[in-house]
Amino acid sequence: MAPSTEWGVPAAEKQAELQRSQIRSKIRNDYQRKINNPRHTGSLIDPAYFRWNYARHNSYAYFKATKLTSITGAIMGIAIPAGLIYFFYRHRKYTQEMYDSGQWAKPRNLVNG
Questions:
Q1: Rounded CA gap, 14 and 4, in Å?
Q2: What is the C-alpha to C-alpha distance for residues 104 and 97, in angstroms, rounded to an integer?
């Protein structure tokens, strides 16, 4: 097996990952240097906050509708509300049948005594 394709990863991809790791390490070291500086003035914001905020605000720009996201949207937007409506409808119908048949006694109305 050639060393450049070890574990099925091409050498160019390994090099790119190494460069990204080095950039992250430099950012982390710079942040640690600033946070541990006793003479630092002003506010200091964690770079992870910037990454999180960027991903949060640009999520729709990079969203891609796939089969999985369409199915998830249909389940969350249609199936769950329809299931809850059906459940509450059946429960209300069942309780009304139990009250009408006399198997259950209606609870006393506390407002009217």
A1: 9
A2: 9
